[in-house]
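User: I'm putting together a teaching handout on how multi-component assemblies are represented. Below are the sequence lines for each component of a complex, exactly as they appear in our records. Could you produce the 3D structure of the whole assembly as structure tokens, so the students can see both representations side by side? Please keep the chain order the same as the input.
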Amino acid sequence: MDMKQALFELSRCAGPSGAEGDVFETAEAILKPFVRSVTRDVLGNLIGIRTAKKRNRPCILLDAHLDEVGMLVTDHERGFLKFASIGIDPRILPGLRVRVCTEPPMYGVVACLPPHVTDPDERGKAIPAKDLRVDCGLTEEEAPKRVPVGTRIVYASEPFLMGEKIVCGKSLDDRACFVILCRVMELLRDEELNVDVCVLGSVQEEYTGAGAATGSYNMQPDEAIVVDVSFAETPDSKEGCKPLGSGPMIGIGPVMSRRMSEELRSLAKENGIPFTREVLPSGTGTNADAIQICREGVPVCCVSLPLRYMHTPLEAVSLDDMEHCAQLIAKYILSRKEGD
Amino acid sequence: MLLDTLKALCPLFGPSGLEDEVRSYIRKEAEPYADQILETRTGALLVFKRGRVKPKFTVMLAAHMDEVGVIVKEIDGDGFLRFGCVGGIDRRVLLGKPVFLGPRRIPGVIGMKPVHLTTEEERKSVPKIKELYIDVGAANQKEAEALVEPGDYGCFDPAFLELQNGFVCSKAIDDRLGCALMLEKLKEDLPVDAWFAFTVQEEIGSRGAFGAAFGIRPDVVLVLEATSAADIPPNKEANQVCAPRRGPVISLLDKGTVYDAGLFRLLTGIAEEKGIPWQVKTRRVGSTDARAAIAAAGGCRAAGLSAPVRCIHSPSCVGSVRDFEDMKRMLDAFLEKMEDYHG
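Assistant: Of course. Below is the structure of the complete assembly, with chains in the same order as your input.
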């Protein structure tokens, strides 16, 4: 598979939390060649299954979420849209191009005042989201009808490549990791499996984790690997961040299964896969938190992809890191032996 | 067609000081229609076309080819770029935006710390420009140096978007709109001889217009611009300046110029006669090449027509095609009036 191409296609889909429908079709098409079946549950989770050669084998769940951060229309004012957002730093918004998820969708701009009318000392102050408006060129009369309250808004970024290896675009959190899962299944395609593998493209991670909780409840896995993004180093983010290109970040902490965490690290070392440790002292801030407490409990570990500019319109990941994550997870699955 | 010309001009790479791509395009388009084409030593393009009659007063139309952008200042040890702004940009519109740098248009992003890692205090203000950085995906300084160098210019996203009700969104509508109006006019028969001055470096102080006016020594200058509409709630009405869909802005007064009262009356007369809506700016903000034209060669009468455009000096200017078309109609009538204009 062409991971870059797959990621570009997924990045272009509009799938804010709770309205991931647009992503499902594209995600299904990418995963389908590598699994036996792809289905959809009541919340919209994507479930891809490939079973082991023998029956009654344990099941390992691989999770990556399909939803993205976005905004929601809350009111109208003179044809402009007022909105609320989840997980978005409003400082990213002035002058931003967005896509309003009407049928058909429409483009808009988060309006900004020109410097000519602002005082120089104002220009350092962040503008709160409540004082920002989306401009689609609508009239006062038509705005409430054509863009009703509750309509979703997502970034309008077009993905692009920087150099040869760095993909830049929206919703790489967490669709880059869904692409990793597809690549895992591709790597396993010609291998005999000793475990059932369930790929969960979960919904609503950015809000409540309800997708992962539901998906793992229904699939009843014996263990799970959650593949989400984590923080890559930039000039203004160093502490706890890892450089792009340093490979998968393997989670260590109370929520993680110690056994899984150690095995992943051993496998990485044995196979020459670059990796770093991500120490998570309490919650992980990922679907691992919901999955670990599912039913009677599920051993879970995080394998995270370093990502820059999380939750902004242009996030950045390394294709090399994505490949290394996939290699590591594939090795882990293949290491699950008979009688485990 | 005006909109088609605008769609061709806006994406071109032309920050103040490096307008070459725009100038080449305009020159190529203007050549078949021009009686004379000159370039000043600082890069302004001056096109002369004869009309039905030679007017009593030398007429010059002016629009600027340059746009606001960024310029690379240095490459740091980790391969990130520090930069400055070319032209007046409110830094709040820079965060998280794509830029395209240098002759190879290397793509990059102006990065920002993830919200998860910020404190409440940090979120109240926006980092200064010297604290901002551009990421071109280089693993280190050496890789970055292979892609860009200090002094490389950068422009915003060139994609041109259509919004609703004839609104469009693009970088550089200020002032490729003026250039588009002039190019369209050049293709038509003119009532009077006229100079079309495609200036440079307007965004850093009308620096190209001085030379242009000096060379032409016009008696009448009509500047065609995009101007700052600030009709965005919750901005107070008194601070809104002007608004799209209320027609072209006829210049009365701004930070650089007192426009000629007679020409102001001429323009408002045209608007009333033709049933074209028009407005004036409710705040004295902004400046145009008119101030350079007046200062450059002993004075002249200046007039200005502008389209009210939202989010000026940002990557996403928003304007109404109807206003642009109304400007064209006013320009047509203005040149007709120059036949009999005796001041």
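A couple of points students might notice: The mean pLDDT of chain B is 94. Chain B touches chain A through 70 residues (CB under 8 Å).
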